[in-house]
Amino acid sequence: MDGFQDSISLIFHFHYRWSNKNQVERIILAIREHLEIIDAILDRDQVGALQALERHLGTANQTFVASIQRD
Fold it and tell me: 14 falls in which pLDDT band (50, 70, 90)?
């Protein structure tokens, strides 16, 4: 749990550094990706949930890397 909390803290810390450019589009995409994960979990589709989570983490990673490269 401590490791998870540290990861979330890191994400929120860097989130404030992200550019506001395309912010609405990023938020909409993140919501869609979160809903895909939730839907798969509710459907008890473990494989689908993991695939949706991997897609979301890939998107989040791309956004994170782009945010730190802009400096």
Answer: low
Structure confidence by residue, pLDDT tens digits, 29-62: 999 999 999 999 999 999 999 999 999 999 988 8
Q: Show the domain range for 30.
A: 2-69
Element spanning 71, H or E: none
User: Cβ of 42: how many Cβ atoms within 10 Å?
Assistant: 9
Annotate 6-59 with DSSP letters as a single string: HHHHHHHHHHTTS-STTHHHHHHHHHHHHHHHHHHHHTT-HHHHHHHHHHHHHH
**What domain count does the chain have?**
1
Averaged pLDDT of the chain? 83
